[in-house]
Amino acid sequence: MTRQFPYMKSTFTWKGDDFIISAKALANPNNEYHGLERLALKYHQAGSWQLAGEHWLIAAGWRRKTMDANDERHVEALQFVLRHVEYNRAMAEWKKKKLGRNAMPYPGQFGLEDD
User: Fold this and answer.
1) How far apart are CA 28 and CA 23, in angstroms?
2) Is the pLDDT of residue 1 over 60?
3) Closest listed residue to residue 85, CA positions, set 51, 114, 62, 115
């Protein structure tokens, strides 16, 4: 799993009070992606766009595996989450490159409403 996140060491110990995947989360996978999405939003609001994008991506994968592909609301929700992945990746890249304000990505460019 650490290979998916370049800044994470392969020796990371997968335990701790604030670790996302827990026995509770694994026992109830249909609802836990909502918690991941809330956490992603908190990271986004804090300006930790790379972490936010990664949490959105994990939530998207989890949602995709548990959703009913025939339910249009689930499909729309998955698309919404994936738009957040792309937006947060663009924000992280903008921050990394230290570009000017006029180069800043905006939610509307990714099909998201301006907050």
Assistant:
1) 9
2) no
3) 51
Buried b or exposed e, range 54-70, using 16+ CB within 10 angstroms: bbbbbbbebbeeebeee
User: What is the reported pTM?
Assistant: 0.70
The radius of gyration of the chain from alpha carbons, rounded to an integer in Å, stands at 15
Nearest to 67 by CA among 8, 10, 76: 76
Strands (E), the chain: none
64 vs 6: CA distance, rounded Å: 23
What's 11's DSSP letter? T
| Paired tokens of 30 | 């249909």
Residue whose pair of structure tokens reads 């921050």 in the numeric block = 95
